[in-house]
Structure formats: structure tokens, C-alpha cells
């Protein structure tokens, strides 16, 4: 058994609440990522929602989970399931989620293990625990209820990425919705989340205070920039996250620039195959299949060399932290006709952020100047400020718990907008227990 991350011992109260429904954030309350939410009532009915780690450098971990028999995993991003192998190995916890989330989890855990070995990060689970976790899955279809003690649970489409789910909980006293990461807007891969009528909604607030640019305009700006690079004889390198972003981008390229030669590399290739095996999780399965047939998947060293002469390369890692992207960048950097087009958030201390700030990054251990054109595009599949506020209103929720958010910048404008709409707003803090509904009382 592997020791839990140092300094992150359990903050969870030993006894069940005397009455009401209690929530407690092990992580992800007043921060983005790293999610773990315990729910418990007076009958000791317990549930954990997500158990992830934040893939920062070094990673952040939630505090140690108490004994819990069942965990819901909303989707297959590492900040929502990265610590599940520890949970299954130590508590024999069952994992509940959609079929696609379960299948992709295998890739995500192995990748996480590989990165932690290379970077020598402490990880509270080892490779054998991945097998235990894979055997712990219980698959649920969207919109099908199941019984958890005297609670009824069901999963609903969350947008964001294929397989992502929101959890609805019907307790004898309250109806609760927990969004996980969600978006109400459609993307090429997924349809947007639809509101549910509930008493309480736990809302992911990553984009509080910020509205996304108009998606169509941003796509056209992106396509124009790619065409410019190609017209001058260059190659556009597009670092993209493997799980969702890679496929969204390839589908858009197929739609808007079908005359280009586009190569795809990295873990996004395997994830696309799994997505295609689960058409129920996709908005337009035929569109993903045809764009995948159209693009060229890189599978050998000679393919990689061919890709260097093509128009566009879409590859991991999205934050230029390892992956084939660095191999390509190391070669493309010598010709300033080439360009790097970033398509997602770049966390601090990552290669992608360093490139933005200083025009250089570490390639195979060596700080390297990158004298190429660099541009950033916003293709987030998290709800923006406006979508979050509208969603809470459409849920007709009496109270809202805002989590998965930066407490200093993103949360205050969101709280203000939600309160103006008449919601009671909770602002959870990691390690502090609070109550829902009539039991709700602020400790300050
Ligand atoms: Zn997340
Ligand atoms: Zn996510």
C-alpha cells in the first residue's frame, strides 16, 4: 500500500450529521481541479463525487477520502478521477459513471502514472491499483435511475466532453444536481447540458466573471490564421489536450479547411477510437468518423517526418509538457514560416505558459528559444459566466454551491450575479463541512 500524499490527511468529520444533508470538499471547493466532494446524511448514507488531482507542476491532491463505498466519476479528466485508483485499492470503493468515462479512465491513469514516474512526482497509488480501479467500475446509462440506500441517483449529459455527466440526487427531502465540468453550448463532439429542476445545484464556476468570445467568430479567426501560415509555406503546430480538444479541433478543420493536409498525433488518437465506439455520447458520430478518416493519424517515425512537411499538426500535450508536441516543436522551430497556435488554458510552470511569457521553453531538459509566431485561441468547453448564471436560473434552484473556481477572481462576480437572481449562494472551502437547505447556516 502506498502512503497518501504527505500533508493531506483526512479533514473529514468522523460522525454523520445529526440531521440534514452535509457536504464537505476534500478538494476543488475554492480552487480549480483536484475535485473530491463528500455528501452524507443523518442515516450515514454517503457518496463521493469525483476524486481527482490537479495536473499542475508539481500536482495538487485532495485530502484523504474517508471510507466510502460508492463514488460517482463525472468525467474522464484527470482532475476528476486521478486519485480513484487509491480509493479503490484502499477502500474497495465502487466507481459509477458512463461507459465511455470508464474506458477512457484506463488511458488517463496510465498516462498519469507515466508522467509521475518521469517527473518523479509522489503518487499515492501504483500501477497495480489501476487494475483494481478498472474492476471497480459500475456503468450507468444517461437518464436511468438507480437506488443508493434511500437516495435515487441518475446521470445526465453535461456537454464538456463525450461521456461527461451531471449527477442528480433525489433524497427524501431534497433534489440536488451536481454539474461536474459542464457546458450548455454545443461543441462539435457534444450537445450542451440541459437544466434540471432541483432545489440545490452544485455549479462548476471555472469561468465566473468571464464570458467566452463568440464561438463561431473564434473558429473563423483560428481558421484564417492557419490558412495564413499555410499560404506562406509553413506548418501550424496545434498543441491540444487529448481528451475532447483534439477531436473538436480535427472536426472543425475538416469542416472549414478540408483542402488542407492535417496530421494527428498523441493520445487523442486512442481517445477518438473509444469515442467512436460510444455513439450515444456524441452529438454527431458520423461527423467524427468522417473527419477521422480524412485526417492522417501518425503511427510511426516515418509518419512523424511526413507530418513535418504537412499543413497542420494537432498533437498532445496541450500545455507543451512532453508528448509528441515537443518533438515537432524542436524541428519546426528552425523555420519562422511555421507557427504555434495554442488552443487551451496554459497552467503556470508549464512549457506552454513559459512560451507565452518568455518565448522559450524546456525541450528534453534544455531551455530552448522558440522564435516562431505564437497565437492563442479560446475553445473552452466549460460554461462561461453568462451560461452558468442562466443555467442556475433555469434549474429554478433555491440554493447554489459554487465550486471548481478561483476564489479571488472568478467566484465573487459569479456570487454577485447569482444572488441578484435570488439564489442562496454557498461558497465552499476545502476541509470545512456545510449543510444544504434548511440546515444551512454560515459559520461566519
Ligand atoms: Zn475540471
Ligand atoms: Zn473536465
Could you describe the 3D structure shown?
The chain has 444 residues and is α/β, with parallel strands linked by helices. It has two domains: 21-210 and 385-439, Metallo-beta-lactamase, Chain A (4-Layer Sandwich), CATH 3.60.15.10; 215-376, Rossmann fold (3-Layer(aba) Sandwich). It contains 13 helices and 22 strands. The chain has helices spanning 78-81, 84-91, 99-119, 127-135, 215-231, 245-256, 268-276, 285-294, 301-308, 324-332, 351-358, 385-394, 411-420; strands spanning 21-27, 36-41, 46-49, 70-72, 94-97, 137-139, 146-148, 151-157, 165-170, 175-178, 200-204, 236-239, 262-265, 296-297, 312-315, 339-342, 360-363, 366-369, 373-376, 399-403, 424-426, 433-435. The strands form four sheets. A seven-stranded mixed β-sheet has the order 6-5-4-3-2-1-22. β8 (151-157) and β9 (165-170) form a beta hairpin. α2 (84-91) crosses α4, α3 (99-119) packs antiparallel against α7 (268-276) and α6 packs across α8. The longest helix is centred in the first third of the chain and has 21 residues, at 99-119. The model has no long low-confidence stretch (mean pLDDT 95). The structure holds zinc ion (2 copies). One zinc ion (ZN) binds at residues 33, 77, 79-80, 181, 404. Residues 75, 77, 160, 181 line the site of one zinc ion (ZN).
Amino acid at each position: 500500500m502506498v502512503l497518501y500524499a504527505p500533508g493531506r490527511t483526512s479533514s473529514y468529520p468522523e460522525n454523520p450529521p445529526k440531521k440534514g444533508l452535509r457536504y464537505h470538499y476534500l478538494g476543488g471547493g475554492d480552487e480549480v481541479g483536484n475535485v473530491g466532494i463528500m455528501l452524507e446524511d443523518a442515516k450515514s448514507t454517503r457518496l463521493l463525487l469525483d476524486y481527482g488531482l490537479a495536473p499542475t507542476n508539481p500536482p495538487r491532491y485532495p485530502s484523504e477520502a474517508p471510507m466510502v463505498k460508492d463514488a460517482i466519476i463525472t468525467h474522464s479528466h484527470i482532475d476528476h478521477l486521478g486519485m480513484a485508483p487509491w480509493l479503490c485499492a484502499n477502500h474497495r470503493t465502487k466507481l459509477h459513471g458512463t461507459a465511455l468515462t470508464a474506458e477512457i479512465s484506463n488511458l488517463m491513469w496510465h498516462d498519469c502514472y507515466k508522467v509521475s514516474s518521469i517527473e518523479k512526482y509522489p503518487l499515492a497509488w501504483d500501477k497495480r491499483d489501476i487494475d483494481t480501479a478498472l474492476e471497480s467500475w459500475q456503468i450507468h446509462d444517461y437518464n436511468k435511475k438507480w437506488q443508493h440506500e434511500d437516495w435515487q441517483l441518475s446521470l445526465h449529459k453535461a456537454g464538456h466532453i463525450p461521456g461527461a455527466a451531471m449527477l442528480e440526487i433525489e433524497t427524501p427531502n431534497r433534489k440536488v444536481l451536481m454539474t461536474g465540468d459542464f457546458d450548455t453550448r454545443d461543441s462539435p463532439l457534444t450537445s450542451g447540458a440541459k437544466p434540471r429542476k432541483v432545489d440545490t445545484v452544485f455549479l462548476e464556476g471555472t469561468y465566473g466573471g468571464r464570458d467566452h468570445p463568440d464561438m463561431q467568430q473564434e473558429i473563423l479567426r483560428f481558421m484564417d490564421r492557419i490558412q495564413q501560415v499555410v499560404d506562406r509555406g509553413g506548418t501550424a503546430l496545434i498543441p491540444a489536450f487529448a481528451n475532447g480538444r483534439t477531436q473538436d479541433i480535427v472536426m472543425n478543420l475538416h469542416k472549414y479547411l478540408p483542402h488542407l493536409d492535417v496530421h494527428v498525433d498523441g493520445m487523442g488518437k486512442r481517445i477518438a477510437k473509444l469515442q467512436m465506439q460510444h455513439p450515444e455520447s456524441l452529438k454527431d458520430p458520423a461527423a467524427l468518423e468522417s473527419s477521422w478518416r480524412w485526417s492522417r493519424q501518425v503511427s510511426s517515425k516515418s509518419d512523424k517526418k511526413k507530418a513535418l512537411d504537412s499543413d497542420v499538426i494537432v498533437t498532445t500535450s496541450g500545455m507543451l509538457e512532453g508528448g509528441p508536441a515537443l518533438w515537432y516543436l524542436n524541428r519546426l522551430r528552425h523555420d519562422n514560416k511555421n507557427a504555434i497556435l495554442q488552443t487551451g488554458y496554459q497552467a503556470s510552470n508549464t512549457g506552454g505558459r513559459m512560451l507565452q511569457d518568455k518565448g522559450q521553453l524546456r525541450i528534453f531538459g534544455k531551455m530552448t528559444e522558440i522564435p516562431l509566431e505564437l497565437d492563442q485561441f479560446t475553445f473552452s468547453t466549460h460554461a462561461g459566466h453568462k451560461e452558468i448564471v442562466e443555467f442556475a436560473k433555469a434549474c429554478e434552484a433555491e440554493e447554489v454551491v459554487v465550486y471548481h473556481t478561483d476564489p479571488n477572481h472568478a467566484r465573487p462576480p459569479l456570487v454577485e450575479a447569482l444572488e441578484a437572481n435570488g439564489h442562496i449562494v454557498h461558497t465552499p472551502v476545502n476541509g470545512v463541512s456545510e449543510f444544504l437547505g434548511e440546515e444551512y447556516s454560515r459559520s461566519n
